[in-house]
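Structure (tokenized):
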């Protein structure tokens, strides 16, 4: 067996708890879904040949030097959470992710933010001392704070003095802490859960709850289709209202019942078959109560086991729960509140099984960094961001077939003009999302529906897009219908110059894609782009029975090609050919 290493770093005024793995982390290896490299087949034996006269010189066989094995990349991640600061160091190599060290220091930033609205100076000093100790640990791996991915969640995001706090941290420690938007937390939770339990969730309806101290992420999945992905600004620490009492638990239950009822009015929760609850406090409590935690799945409770746990928590005092599980009072309190959240969401469906995996924000960050470094971009199928966009689109009952056709044509246009546009893969994703959501405003009104689409997008959460990117998608959609001369560039005012140009180029492509399906008859099978000295030719392939509709496509194309000519400086021309 590989040895475990345990390190304790003294952190003024307290001590950093540690949980270190010195062996390959099988959980993360499974998450990556990577298979061992296939061995090259052995060379077949040669047939004996007749002897030849011996030459005075013999050709020397070329010496093949095997390529050296790639040195694993070291990565450090830091989570500035509501209740604790955590850091992990891991090495990423093809086929594996090896966790080298994990550090934890209890620093309750959330107590400041949720009660006073800001992070106090005394708490900031504790954060600084802790992060400096983290930096000392990084030195043993020849890493610097600036090399680490450091993120903060609700406690920093909601603080009124967050900018001052972040600048203070960077100046004193060297860590550049990024504040995660709530919907980004949802994306990370969804990504980790799908990697952990994708096979178990691929069929039927499932509900994923990430029960944080300051916020709760709610994800509803129907097989591989994402139905709901949103973040709510309540968590275990907020629900406790900082005053542990039976009255607080009762008021939290009533609040949660209202939240669940509002979601159930739009989404069918009664048919949910399985629930996944991500909560480190609840997992640790259950382990202390004797529930076995299995690798890569965590703890699984059937209906009887769930009810038995509920009865135990309802009939025991907080002190008794802490003593029975071997955790401290504060953790028992947070774990019981996490269970209250879990119970509220499972009440409408009474699922067959509830999973509580052993996972954390550090796991999510390490997985995300690994996927970004090792896995190629998806270009043909829906990306996770697009799946989240489809979940938003379905709320407004759009024409799915039209949206899919516009997305397909828009991306083919993007790929055909990539050399001219100079746009990257992220811009391609924004175009795909805009194509999916361009008609959601019809839910409000068919008159000037592009305006309604834009403000619905701005008011929505698309998992995987930050607010700036969502604003650019809204700007693209806002101008996908009316003539270019009517585009008010003041709408693009908040954007930087480079972003304005990107929006105009993507808008031009979306306008053409929408025009080529103006009748919603999906006449165009595929398209490609060719250029001459003066023309930008859009060559569309249609089926034999659809050629009579070319005049309609030509009129729609000419009506929306003005912006394409403006941004690319070439006269657009539509050409039809017969699909093979």
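Design, position by position:
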């Amino acid at each position: 067996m590989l040895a475990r290493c345990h390190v304790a770093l003294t952190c003024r005024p307290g001590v950093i708890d540690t949980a270190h793995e010195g062996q390959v982390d099988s959980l993360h290896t499974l998450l990556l879904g990577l298979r061992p490299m296939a061995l090259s087949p052995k060379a077949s034996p040669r047939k004996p040949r007749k002897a030849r006269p011996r030459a005075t010189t013999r050709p020397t066989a070329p010496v093949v030097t095997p390529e050296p094995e790639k040195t694993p990349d070291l990565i450090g991640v830091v989570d500035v959470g509501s209740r604790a600061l955590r850091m992990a160091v891991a090495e990423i190599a093809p086929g594996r992710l090896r966790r080298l060290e994990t550090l934890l220091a209890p620093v309750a930033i959330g107590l400041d933010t949720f009660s006073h609205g800001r992070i106090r100076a005394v708490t900031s000093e504790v954060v600084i001392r802790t992060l400096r100790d983290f930096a000392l640990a990084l030195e043993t791996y020849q890493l610097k704070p600036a090399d680490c991915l450091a993120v903060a969640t609700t406690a920093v995001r909601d603080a009124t003095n967050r900018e001052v706090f972040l600048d203070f941290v960077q100046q004193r420690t060297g860590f550049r802490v990024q504040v995660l938007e709530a919907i980004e937390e949802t994306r990370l939770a969804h990504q980790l859960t799908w990697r952990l339990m994708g096979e178990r969730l691929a069929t039927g309806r499932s509900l994923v709850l990430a029960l944080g101290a300051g916020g709760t992420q709610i994800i509803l999945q129907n097989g591989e289709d994402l139905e709901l992905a949103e973040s709510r600004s309540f968590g275990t620490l907020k629900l406790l209202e900082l005053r542990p009492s039976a009255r607080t638990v009762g008021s939290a239950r009533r609040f949660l019942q209202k939240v669940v009822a509002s979601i159930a009015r739009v989404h069918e929760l009664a048919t949910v078959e399985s629930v996944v609850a991500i909560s480190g406090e609840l997992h640790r409590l259950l382990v202390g109560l004797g529930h076995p935690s299995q690798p890569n799945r965590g703890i699984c409770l059937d209906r009887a086991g769930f009810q038995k746990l509920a009865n135990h928590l309802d009939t025991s005092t907080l002190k008794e729960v802490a003593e029975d599980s071997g955790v401290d009072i504060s953790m028992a309190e947070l774990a019981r509140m996490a269970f209250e959240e879990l119970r509220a969401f499972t009440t409408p469906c009474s699922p067959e099984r509830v999973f509580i995996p052993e996972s954390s924000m550090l796991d999510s960050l390490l997985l995300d960094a690994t996927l970004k470094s090792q896995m190629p971009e998806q270009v043909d199928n829906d990306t996770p961001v697009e799946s989240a966009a489809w979940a938003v689109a379905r709320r407004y009952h759009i024409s799915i077939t039209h949206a899919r056709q516009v997305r397909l044509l828009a991306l083919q246009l993007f790929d055909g003009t990539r050399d001219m546009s100079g746009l990257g893969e992220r811009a391609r994703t924004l175009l795909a999302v805009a194509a999916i959501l361009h008609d959601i405003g019809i839910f409000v009104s068919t008159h000037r529906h592009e305006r309604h689409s834009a403000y619905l997008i701005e008011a929505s959460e698309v998992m995987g897009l930050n607010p700036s990117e969502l604003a650019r998608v809204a700007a693209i959609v806002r101008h996908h219908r009316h003539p270019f001369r009517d585009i008010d560039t003041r709408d693009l005012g908040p954007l930087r110059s480079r972003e304005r140009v990107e929006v105009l180029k993507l808008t031009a492509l979306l306008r053409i894609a929408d025009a080529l399906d103006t009748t919603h008859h999906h006449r165009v099978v595929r398209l490609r782009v060719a250029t001459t000295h003066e023309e930008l030719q859009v060559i569309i392939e249609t089926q034999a029975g659809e050629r009579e509709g070319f005049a309609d496509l030509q009129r729609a194309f000419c009506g929306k090609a003005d912006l394409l000519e403006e941004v690319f400086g070439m006269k657009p021309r539509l050409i039809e050919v017969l699909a093979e």
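Reviewer-requested clarification: The chain has three domains: 10-32+72-179, 182-364, 384-578. Residues 182-201 form the longest helix (20 residues).
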